[in-house]
Every structure is written in structure tokens, then in C-alpha cells.
Amino acid sequence: MKDKVFSNIVKRLAEVKKLENLTVKEIRLLSTPKRIAYTKLKIGKKTYPAWRILFSDALGPGKGGIRFHPGVCQDEVKSLSFWMTLKNSLAGLPYGGAKGGVQFDPRQASDKELQQVSRKFIDAFYKYLGQDKDIPAPDVYTNSQIMAWMLDEYEKKVGYHQPGMITGKPLDLQGCVLRGDATAKGAFIITKAMLKKFKLNKKKLKVAVQGFGNAGLFMSQMLAKDGFRVVAVSDSKGGIYSKTGLNIKKVIAIKKKQGSVTKHKQGQVVTNAQLLELPVDILVLAALENQVTKDNAKDVKAKYIVEVANGPTTYDADQILFKKGTMVVPDILANSGGVTVSYFEWAQNRTGNILDKDYLAKLLETKMLSSWNKMMTVYREHDKKIDLRASAYIIAIRRILSAERLRGNL
Ligand code: GLU
Q1: What are the tens digits of pLDDT across the range 59-86?
Q2: Helix, strand or coil for residue 140?
Q3: Which end of the chain has fewer CB atoms within 10 angstroms, the N or the C?
Q4: Distance of CA 40 to CAs 37, 138, 142, 303, Å?
Q5: Which residues pair with 331 in a beta bridge?
Q6: For position 341, what pLDDT does the model report?
Q7: What are the residue numbers of the active site?
């Protein structure tokens, strides 16, 4: 399954090529990563394949997280770095796109080993990183502590302080007060914009959330707090479903105590696959890529999908959903709150100014809504004959190609 992620991107680009009359040269530029750095991290007797891929630096230094997961492979990191390129462009940030990954399961590792892998990653790739080169951040199964070890290792290597070389840091190492739940915050802002646009009443909506990591957990919490009925949530071990709605506070407490939402007594246990097909109005995808595919898209009941994960819907699934009239709010918009706040952190680190929390929260909202409006404008211009993903891709790609043209690369 995993080795097919980038092929979805190629199909999408072919569609945008037609819509925007792009040349073969432009498509080649858009679909070729600028640098693939690969190594094997050796920790004792074990080795872990690791990548840092800079997909594009046309708009600025590379930017994107580092994923620790046993399923990480080159095709996945390459796809994730492509999506970062588009995400950063759509969000209007001064960044290209990049991503890193280690094929390693931190859930099975001791703290000592986790720290070793984090430091080795920097030892292997530090030459490619820096606040003006390529700036990592957290992603699946990485967090602020890992960013702290990575910053420390980087600063030891280069011999000076440079907090702006990485984002998603703890507050005491010049992190940003908003970063912890920023991805969910951004997705929540977009969900509310969607409700307004399609005149939906939150009190009447049932929501299912797939994934209960940083993004999914906070998103469920925000939705529940705001009066949405969250009827199902899941983590990698499975999900829990209650028609009448879950008590998210309790689910979070169980997850923290017992390691999985499935341990929650209320409701019925479902698989991750079953959760996708539940009778809900909004499906929030906050786990991994390739979840809604050509095999299950027709069985998805939700009329609205919000992609908080990167790449959770395949190209073929998109076609089926579009025909059914399902609105898919694409990842490169819905989950861009994380990297937008990373940008605030980076900018603070560079200027030495600490900006007010309320000001930053407002700025995040303004930026998210501005991207939403841009996407909806293109959607309308095309008489709603293309989906939201194509609309978002068009805006992102126009800006990247403009930068390439101005640089003389086209
Ligand atoms: N990993 C997050 C993403 O996929 C955040 C990246 C960042 O902050 O650079 O968007």
C-alpha cells in the first residue's frame, strides 16, 4: 500500500496540468524532488533507514516535519515533502517544502533509544539543515522533546545557537506558545468556515474522528467543547463508537491512562476501517495516508471530510467521492495550522521578538480563512466542476511556478 503514495500525486498533477495548461517542463519541475538524502542510522546492533527530502526551495528554505514510524519509506517521505511544498505555498509562507522520516517504531523504544535516534538523525543530516536551508518540525510520533534533542545536537555540531533551525520546540527552548495544538486549531477554524459556507448546524451534525494523536485528540476536544456531537474516535488499536455521542474528556483520560481509546467502556468497539463507514455527517481523517481508497470510498456515508492527516484520501477515492457529492477539505489546507504556527516560531526565533499569544491566535485565524477564501474562489471560477483539492492545488502551484519563473528556472 505504502509504495503507491506518490503515484496518486502524479495523477493529480496530470489533472492540474490540463486545468492550468501547464507545460511538460513545469510538470517535471513540480514533480521532481530537489534533494533526497538517505542513510541508515546505526544504534547498537540495530539500523534504521532514514531520509530527509527537500522537495522544493523555490519559495524559501525547506520546511516540514520528521516522522518516526515503522512504515516510513522513501515513497512516503517524498510524497509528504511534496505536500509540504504545496501546503507552504498555499498558506503564503516563505518556505519551500521538505520532510524527514525514520523507519522506526518509537512506541517500542526506550527513552534512551529515542534520544539516540533523534541525535543520530541530526548527525547524519545536519549539513542540509539550518534556519535558511531546511527547517524540521514534529510529525507522526515525534514531539517537542525530540525537537529539543535535535536542536541540542545541531548546536553542538555547528558550534553556535540557532533555535530557528527547528520548530515545535518546548517553550523553554524558544518554542511558540501556540504550537502544541496548532494543527487542530487550524483544522477547527477551517471546519467552522465550512459550516458557515454550507449553512450547516453543528448541533445536528455527527462527527467521527480517525486518529487520536496530537491532531486528532485536540480536534476531538475542540469539536466536543464547541457543541459538535463526536460519536466516534479511533487510534492505531481501533475505535469506539456511541450513537448518542462520546464524552471526549473521559476518552482522553482513558487514552492517557490505558494507552487506547478502545478501553473506554461507553459505546461499541469498531475497527479503523469500520469507523470510516459510520453513519456520520463529518469525517475527520487525522491518522495516516491512504485511508479512504477506491475500495471503501463508496461506503463512506459522511457528506464532508476534513483531512487533518496528510494524504488520507487516494486519487481514485477522490473521483468516487466527487461523483457522490462528498466535499473533501484537502490536507494542504485543513492541516496547515501546524506549519503556520511553526512559521510564527521561526520568525520569533530570528527576530528575537516575542509576540503576544492573542495576536498570534488571531493571525492564525486570518491566515487560515484567507487560504480558505482563495480556494473557494478558484472552486467557484471553475463552476464547482473541480473538487476542493484541485482548487487548492491550483493556487499553490501558481505561486511555486511564479517563483521558479522569477528565478529563471522556467
Ligand atoms: N508535520 C506538520 C505537517 O505535516 C508540521 C510541519 C511543520 O511545522 O514544519 O504539516
Answers
A1: 999 999 999 999 999 999 999 999 999 9
A2: coil
A3: N
A4: 11, 20, 18, 43
A5: none
A6: 98
A7: 99
Distance CA 232, CA 248 (A): 10
pLDDT digits (tens, 9 = 90+) for 234-251: 999 999 999 999 999 999
Q: What is the pTM of this model?
A: 0.97
Is 408 a domain residue?
no
Residue list, ligand 1 pocket, CB within 6 Å: 63-65, 137, 139, 167-168, 310, 335, 338-339, 342
Which of 408, 332, 393 is closest to 368 using CA atoms?
332
CA distance 405 to 408: 5
Residue 242 CA to ligand 1 center (angstroms) comes to: 32
Question: Which range marks the domain in which residue 126 is found?
Answer: 34-165
Cα–ligand 1 centroid distance for 64 (angstroms): 5
Return the ligand 1 atom nearest residue 339 CA.
8
Assess whether 158 and 186 both reside in one domain. Answer: no
Q: Which atom of ligand 1 has the smallest separation from the CA of 140?
A: 1
Tell the residue number behind the cell numbers 519551500, with chain if given. Answer: 96
Distance CA 329, CA 190 (A): 8
Which residues make beta-bridge pairs with 233?
Answer: 209, 240
**Which of 69, 81, 84, 367 has most ligand 1 atoms within 8 Å of CB, for mutation?**
84
| CA atoms of 62 and 305, how far apart (whole Å) | 29
**Residue 290 has what pLDDT?**
94
Same domain for 308 and 221, yes or no, is yes
Same domain membership, residue 109 and residue 194: no
CATH number at residue 143: 3.40.50.10860
Residue that has been written with the C-alpha cell 522569477 in this structure: 406
CA 216, CA 18: separation in Å to the nearest integer?
A: 35
Cell numbers of 262, please? Answer: 478502545
